[in-house]
Each structure stands twice: as structure tokens, then as C-alpha cells.
Write a structure and sequence with these properties.
Blueprint: E1 28-29, E2 32-33, H1 54-67, E3 70-75, H2 82-91, E4 101-105, H3 117-127, H4 139-150, E5 156-162, H5 165-169, E6 179-184, E7 197-200, H6 206-217, H7 219-224, H8 226-235, H9 240-252, H10 258-265, H11 268-274, H12 283-292, H13 296-305, E8 312-314, H14 315-322, H15 324-327, H16 329-341, E9 346-349, E10 352-354, H17 357-370, H18 373-398, H19 422-431, H20 433-445, H21 449-457, H22 460-466, H23 469-486, H24 489-505, H25 509-526, H26 529-545, H27 549-564, H28 569-585, H29 589-605, H30 611-628, H31 631-648, H32 651-668, H33 671-688, H34 693-709
Parallel strand pairs: 3-6, 3-7, 4-5, 5-6
Antiparallel strand pairs: 1-2, 8-10, 9-10
Helix pairs in contact: 3-4, 6-8, 6-9, 8-10, 11-17, 13-16, 13-17, 18-19, 18-20, 20-21, 20-23, 21-23, 23-24, 24-25, 24-26, 25-26, 26-27, 27-28, 28-29, 28-30, 29-30, 30-31, 30-32, 31-32, 32-33, 33-34
């Protein structure tokens, strides 16, 4: 960035529009002649399509009220509307700046060299009335003269498209009543010691984005296709330059429907091209200038991260992609800082990042242009394997008892987090939920079938604790197809067993039985006796779910006998729990009690390994005690189950225990307490779209009906 003496000290100033003006008429400063001239009014007109920005305008007003003088930096990605915001705010407050306004386009990201501050300063001095032949030759003397002339001025200076803090600092007036508004794609934190305030300018929210379309195209036309207009605003990501380009195309073709334009922009591969065809406006060119300013390391990381399968990602993922073990963690942080500073990456939370949709598309275009296919595939695989490695660490903490298949990673990974407790592991799984599900889909689409199966398998604790049955169906179905393509019979059996249970939970009982029987068959092919028993127990549960209680009891009894012949005591506890709950449900709580007591003893020894099923036993015991009329023991067990399931974050099971508390209260004749418990349980089941909801609502209706009769 040039910062020395300007090469042009008089005459025309390249790239800068100035008007002659004066603040101090008929005065000589250091030998420089100052003539009487009009007050400078260089500010460009406001945009006719300017929309909203209430919070940013209020922030600028607030800073001005606090300080009197102000240096405000409006920062954000290219095309987000920083310049329009600066002009809008300035024009609304012109009466405050009685000594005029100075304006310069600093060309920081125009594709040409950023403008030399000496060139700008020379033009500002002429606008303030200094004769061209009286402007000092050296930059330091120009700065001195500029500060002297502006020392007592109520002046507004707008510096558009700044490249660096050094470029701006030279142009700051000395007055305590002057205001400087800077726009930049960089954060310009170097101006903070000069008292600068940073104002983030982000994309327009959906309503304001549609309003911009209305202003540019016409309200009547947009209102006729309001839903399509909302979709168009979403495709443009609320980025004003994209919205203006889209609006220009609509305005130039009055018969073109918004719906048709949405269809044309639906293809991500063509989106930037279709938003870059209006004279003087190009999304791609806007992004290109920011991209070309990056270092080689930052541009490479920018391209790689755009291949990420999900919307957001953490610093740990970036570390894995960048290879911190090879490049150094501090260096990775520096490169990420460069992307943030350039507003090509957005930090949405501490160590949590995302791309604007259009910036991600541009980065992917650059990746296709600059990176070889095998390099791109390797980067994607690193991301997928990162999620597998991290999720497996979480899985080992949450469900250490599960049987797993080994996996060989393509490279040693940097970045996957370690988890010291269940809460941290489950929190990570929940936070990365969408990324894990999308990673599995991408792995399958790329033909990485073993990896796709592993990514399906490793989500088990997430789906166990946080439910989400439709997601579970997709994960399990993909897991079955991945195992089949991989050719691993045992892996197929695991997913068929899970898919059968998921189908049962959503009421697809025929499919559930088909998948369950197929799971038994595949386990037999694999020679896995325990797997066969596991799948047969899944069928027994299906029989219980579909009203075939006798068949379920026979199957559970057979399974329990098989469990006792194997060394896995935890499996014995599960079968005791399942058979005990069935006995209670079929009106035989006395037969259920010893089974649940045995299950309780087993899981009491395994509470550190499997606290989830230890809490499930408490739910079963509460139901048994309710059945035999021991309401005190029933309430104690149900209350403890609520507490434990809440600690585990298992909302569905917590709601089940709350529902039991409602039944206990009803038995005691406390209808108000019962009603409160039923409503709490119903709210949770409704949120989860759980199949238990109708039964709870029926009980609530019965309770309300009995109250009406009284």
C-alpha cells in the first residue's frame, strides 16, 4: 500500500472527484494561499433503494452523542451495503457539519492499487481552498497543513473502501467536532488507538431484503409474488448488491416473474454467474477483489473450508483442515484472523464460524479453478474423518458399552476434541448434529461407504438421548445402504436392527418387522450369537408395541434365557427391564417386580457406564409400585427418574417419568397436580413429535372431562 509523497501535487487528481472550497477564507497557512471558495459539499447522493439499517444508524448516532467527534469504521463483506449506509447516515445529519463534507473513494478493493493517501490529502487541501501550487511537496507537511486547517472545523469526512488503517490515519482531521466515517472490508483495528468505533454491517434480514426488492422493482409486482420474493431474498442471502442485481434484471424485463427468476437462481453452480450480468454490478467481481488481497495461506484455507458439508464449523475443524501439527496452531489462528479481518469469514460465536452463502459459492468456484480434484477430495475427507474421530470420542464417553467396528483414517488428525464427561460429549454431539448428519450424506454420495456407515453408527448416542425419529430413519436407512455397498454383513445387521426400531417408533410396523427379521438373518450370516439375540429382542419389543403381548412375553422370556447363557450382564439387565415393563403393562405388576429389582441391581453396578438405563429402571419401578398400590415408593422412584433424566438431557424419558407422576397424583385424587404433570409431559412429547403424545392428551382430556362433570 503506497504511503509516501504523492506523485501528483497539482492539476487533475486521478480517481478522485473534488470540488474547490474553503473553510478559512483569505488566510495564509505556512505560505500556502487560501482563497475564498464555496464550502465543500462532496458527499455523493444517498441510494434511492436504501432500506432499514435502524440498528446501525442508531449505533452511529449513539457514538456521536457520546463523543461529539467520531471516527466510525463500517465494516463488512463486499456488497453488504456499507457505502450506502455511510451516505444515508451522513445525509441525514448534514446540518451538524456547517463547514462541509469531504469524500474520497480510497479504492481499497477496486481491483486497482489502493489510492495513495498523499493524493487524497492533496485533493482535500485544494477543496479546502489551498491553491495547487501552494500545496507542500512532502506528505508530512501536507498532514500538518491539513490538521491546522481543520483544527476548529465542524467537518464530515467520508472515506469509502479503505484498505488499511495507515491509509486512513493520514486523513483524520484534528478537530474535536469533526466526524470521520470509514467503510472497509477489513476490520481496521489499527484505528482503535485513534478512538475509532467499529460498526458491523451484516446482510439484511428477510423482511428488509424483500422491502429493498419492493423499492427497486415496485411494491405491486413484489406483493403479487410475495412468497417467491421471500425465496429470492433468501437466495441472495440478504446481500444488497445481489438483491440490486436481481432487481435490475426484473426491472429490465417487466414480464419476467419472480418465480421464474428464483428457478433460474436455484442452481448453485450458476447462481453467481446469473447475479453478475448487470452493467456495472457483479457479485463475482466484488468478491474477487477481497479474495485477491489474501495471502496464499489464507486463500488456500478459504477455498478448503468452503467444501465443508454443513453451515457452521468450529476452530477444531479448521485446525484439522489446516493441519496445525504441521503448520503450528498459532499460525492457523493468524490465518483465520486474516479471513475474519477481510470479512470473508463470519464468527457467529466464540470459535464458531460460517460463510455467507454467496461467499461460500465463490470460494467453491475458486477451489474448482485452483485446486486439483484429488486435493479437494482429500480436504473433504479430512473434514468427514474429523467428525467421525470427534464423534467417536464422544460416543466412547456416553455409551462405552457399545460394540464398534475399527476404522483406519487416511491421515493423523489434528483438532478433534477430547471429552472429560458425558455432559461435554453430549453437548458437542448436539451442537454438531447437523454437521454429523450432513457428513454422513456427503460420505455416501462420494462413494466412501465404510466412512458413511461409521458416521451413521457413531450418531447412536445423539439419537438415543435427543431422539428425532425422522432424522433417525434417514441415518439408519443410509447406514443400511452404506453397509450393503461396503459389503459388510455385520454392519448391515446393526443398521437393520436400528432401522426396525425407528420404524416402529413412527408407526411403520410392517416395515419394522421386515427390517427386524432381516437383522436376525444378517447376524446369523455373520455368526454373531449376541447379535441374533439383540435383533430378536427388537422383534419382541415390536410385538409389545403392536398389541401382541403374549407373543412379546414369549419372545422376551426366550431372549432372557439366551442372555443368561452369555457373559454380558448388562444385556441381562436390559432384558429383565423390557420383560418387567411388559408384565406391568399387561396388569401383572407382582410378576414384574422381581425382574425390575434384578435389573436395578445390575444397573446400579453399571451406573457410571450406563446411567441412562439405570434411570429407565426407576421409571419401570415407579410403574410397578403404582400397579401394586405403593404410591409413596412410586412417587419416590418417578421423582428420582425425572431428576436423573434431566441431568442426562434425555427429554423424552424425563417426560415419561413426569407422566407417571401425573398418574400417581390422579390416583391420590390430586387432579390439579395430575393436570400440571400431564401438560408438562405433553409439551415435551409435542416438541419431539413423539408417538406417546396421543395417550398423554387422552389422559388430559379424561381429567378435564371428569372436572366438567363435577
Amino acid at each position: 500500500m503506497p504511503s509516501g509523497t504523492s506523485n501528483e501535487q497539482s492539476g487533475n487528481v486521478s480517481g478522485l472527484s473534488v470540488q474547490a472550497g474553503v473553510i478559512h477564507g483569505g488566510v495564509h497557512f505556512g505560505g500556502a494561499s487560501v482563497d475564498r471558495s464555496p464550502i465543500p459539499r462532496q458527499l455523493p447522493a444517498p441510494s434511492p433503494n436504501f432500506t432499514n439499517r435502524t440498528s446501525e444508524l442508531s449505533a452511529l448516532d449513539g457514538y456521536l452523542a457520546e463523543r461529539g467527534n467520531l471516527v466510525a469504521v463500517l465494516l463488512g463483506p463486499g456488497g453488504v451495503g456499507k457505502s450506502a449506509l455511510a451516505r444515508q447516515w451522513a445525509h441525514g445529519r448534514l446540518d451538524r457539519f456547517v463547514d462541509g463534507q469531504l469524500y474520497a473513494d480510497l479504492r481499497g478493493f477496486s481491483g486497482a492499487e489502493p489510492l495513495d493517501p498523499g493524493v487524497v490529502l492533496s485533493a482535500f487541501l485544494r477543496a479546502l481552498g489551498v491553491a495547487p501550487d501552494r500545496i507542500p511537496l512532502h506528505l508530512a507537511e501536507q498532514v500538518t497543513l491539513y490538521r491546522t486547517m481543520t483544527a476548529n472545523s465542524s467537518l464530515l469526512v467520508v472515506l469509502d473502501d479503505a484498505y488499511s488503517a495507515a491509509q486512513v490515519r493520514t486523513l483524520l482531521p484534528a478537530s474535536t467536532s469533526a466526524v470521520v466515517v470509514v467503510t472497509s472490508r477489513r476490520r481496521l483495528t489499527g484505528l482503535l488507538p485513534d478512538g475509532a468505533c467499529l460498526v458491523e454491517v451484516g446482510p439484511l434480514p428477510a423482511p428488509e431484503a424483500v422491502e429493498l426488492l419492493e423499492r427497486a422493482v415496485g411494491r405491486e409486482r413484489i406483493l403479487k409474488e410475495f412468497a417467491s420474493a421471500e425465496e429470492l431474498a433468501g437466495i441472495c442471502g440478504g446481500l444488497p448488491i445481489a438483491l440490486v442485481v436481481a432487481a435490475a434484471r426484473l426491472a429490465s424485463r417487466p414480464k419476467l416473474t419472480v418465480r421464474r427468476m428464483v428457478a433460474e437462481l436455484a442452481d448453485e453452480a450458476q447462481r453467481l454467474t446469473r447475479l453478475s450480468v448487470v452493467d456495472g454490478l457483479s457479485i463475482r467481481t466484488t468478491f474477487q477483489f477481497s479474495y485477491q488481497s489474501l495471502t496464499a495461506e489464507a486463500s488456500a484455507l478459504y477455498r478448503k473450508l468452503a467444501l465443508h458439508p454443513g453451515a457452521e464449523f468450529g476452530m477444531d475443524l479448521i485446525t484439522a483442515v489446516a493441519g496445525a501439527g504441521r503448520a503450528g496452531g498459532a499460525q492457523v489462528g493468524t490465518v483465520v484472523g486474516e479471513l475474519l479481518d477481510a470479512n470473508l469469514l463470519e464468527e457467529v460465536a466464540e470459535d464458531r464460524f460460517r460463510y455467507h452463502d454467496l461467499l461460500r459459492l465463490y470460494a467453491r468456484e475458486m477451489s474448482e479453478q485452483d485446486d486439483p480434484p484429488d486435493g479437494r477430495l482429500a480436504a473433504v475427507r479430512t473434514m468427514l474423518e474429523f467428525y467421525l474421530a470427534a464423534a467417536r470420542r464422544a460416543d466412547l464417553v456416553v455409551t462405552p458399552y457399545r460394540r464398534r467396528l475399527p476404522y483406519v483414517y487416511q491421515d493423523a488428525l489434528d483438532g478433534p476434541p477430547e471429552f472429560s464427561d458425558r455432559a461435554g460429549a453430549l453437548g458437542w454431539l448436539d451442537r454438531e448434529r447437523s454437521n454429523l448428519l450432513e457428513a454422513g450424506r456427503v460420505a455416501f454420495d462420494l462413494g466412501l461407504h465404510e466412512l458413511a456407515w461409521q458416521l451413521s453408527d457413531v450418531t447412536w448416542p445423539l439419537l438415543l438421548y435427543f431422539k428425532g425419529y425422522q432424522e433417525r430413519l434417514k441415518v439408519d436407512e443410509r447406514g443400511v445402504r452404506a453397509a450393503q455397498a461396503w459389503g459388510n454383513v455385520w454392519a448391515e445387521a446393526v443398521m437393520l436392527k436400528r432401522l426396525g426400531r425407528a420404524c416402529s417408533r413412527v408407526g411403520a410396523h410392517e416395515a419394522a418387522e421386515r427390517h427386524g427379521r432381516a437383522a436376525v438373518d444378517r447376524y446369523r450370516q455373520a455368526g454373531d450369537i449376541q447379535g441374533v439375540i439383540d435383533a430378536e429382542e427388537g422383534l419382541a419389543t415390536l410385538y409389545a408395541d403392536t398389541g401382541r403381548e403374549e407373543q412379546a412375553a414369549e419372545a422376551y422370556t426366550r431372549v432372557l434365557a439366551g442372555r443368561r447363557a452369555l457373559p454380558n450382564v448388562r444385556s441381562v439387565g436390559l432384558s429383565c427391564l423390557n420383560l418387567g415393563m411388559l408384565r406391568t403393562r399387561t396388569g401383572r405388576p407382582a410378576e414384574a417386580l422381581p425382574l425390575l429389582v434384578e435389573a436395578g441391581q445390575i444397573f446400579a453396578e453399571l451406573s457410571d457406564v450406563d446411567p441412562y438405563n439405570a434411570a429407565r429402571v426407576l421409571i419401570g419401578l415407579a410403574d410397578v409400585y403404582l400397579g401394586v398400590g405403593d404410591l409413596g415408593a412410586a412417587e419416590e422412584s418417578a421423582t428420582e427418574a425425572v431428576r436423573r433424566m434431566a441431568e442426562l438431557g434425555a427429554d423424552s424419558e424425563r417426560a415419561e417419568a413426569v407422566f407417571l407422576l401425573g398418574r400417581i397424583a390422579r390416583r391420590r385424587g390430586d387432579d390439579e397436580a395430575a393436570r400440571q404433570h400431564y401438560r408438562e409431559a405433553a409439551a415435551v412429547f409435542a416438541t419431539l413429535a413423539a408417538p406417546r403424545l396421543p395417550d398423554v392428551l387422552r389422559r388430559l382430556d379424561e381429567l378435564d372431562g371428569s372436572a366438567d362433570e363435577q
